Queue: 3 jobs
Job 1
Amino acid sequence: KAIRISDDVTKSSSKPMIWVDGGIHAREWVSPSTVIYIAAALLGEVESSLAGDVQDLVKKYQFVILPNSNPDGYEYSRTTYRFWRKTRRPSGCELKKTKKNGKCRKKAKMCYGIDPNRNFDAAFNTLGVSPDPCSYIYPGKAAFSEKNTAAMRDFLAAQINK
């Protein structure tokens, strides 16, 4: 769920929107906390010397804040493997170990997760990616194949004409 912050939320859709998301990479634990800190500051928990500036921002803009855009990966990194960064949906067999029927060959492992940062359509699958579903930089089979990136795309696209 996203948090909408404005001086008047009932009229905020007429203001320019600033989108802030965190936790896209599961192992970056400070990211959701940082985003929540930003939300708290926008709600008035700031040093008195900054209060006027923050109030001006909240009057001028609507802020839409998504503290954790990859909760399944985040929880896995907290409970199972500290350095996990991807989502947790099965992503395919090890590179070149898939049978014609789509199943994994004997002794081939099933890979999990897609790097959500690389799952957007901006230059999808071109630079800094790997075709191996087990790689930390595997972008998925198609842009927005992950529920979290598709949800962000759909939400933001719906805001364009508001």
Job 2
Amino acid sequence: NFSSRNCDLEMIKYLLLVNKQGQTRLSKFYEGMELYERSPFVAEIVRKCLTRHDTQSSFFDFQNHKVIYRRYASLFFILGVDETENELAIYEFIHSIVETFDTYFESVRELDLLFNIEKAHYILDEMIMNGCIVETNIRNILQPLAVIDSE
């Protein structure tokens, strides 16, 4: 369980959800970056992820951090993390995000995220706070949304 971890430093720097064409569908930054810097920064990361071959690792170093990504159907889930972070733990965390989205959206698709972007942000906010993983239990993450949806 990630929620018991002491998080003194930001471990997650950003999270990107990108389609196969390289269009960013959702982005969250947990570390300060000027808006004019974000577009070229994101474009470079997305380009690197999309051009990697299936036989290559889903982890690579970029500037002063690690990039860890996973592809699910037509979406790439990309996280930038601290250099000292465990790649496999973050790789599993990406799977946890996808499982949570799948549970809420009943098999998440790109259109689900486009038309329910506020719900996707809410789910991520329940899982990550200030760059730290705070919750991975699907029931705990989705319980507040169930209350909101029932009203």
Job 3
Amino acid sequence: MWQVTDEIETTDERELLNDDNIIIRCTGNITIFGLCNRYNTTFPPRLTAKVAPEEFTETINKINRELRKNVDFTWKALLLGCLCCCCSCGITLIPPCILNNKAKRQVKKVLDWENTRVYNRIGLNWVLRRYQCERSPMMEYVLVLEKVRQKQILSTD
């Protein structure tokens, strides 16, 4: 049987709501398999002394651009797959799953690029994590800006 594997880990709420983490939730109007088509571009006040607002906005705009391209096409494929589901015994629902995994991979590539370009140098790291929605059993993908734990170079023996 064909199975879609998800390489993005589910995060425990206690770990995600750490004081060091900054969570960017989705604000889009389309959410497919937990991945939405837009993230909030407002600059969080907790990042004021760490990163420039222009860098943050540029990063979120790159992610939104990738999501706009991929999620909109996935939505259309899902709609077509649902219309033809009875005739194809559900096989037409496989392409939206594959397209959704492609969209997650593209977002992870953008995040990795931005991490190496800007954020890892200043001790921050972008991660795409699955998170349970408030007042709902549904899961959604959120962007988490984590503080990288620096290894202690000078430690006593």
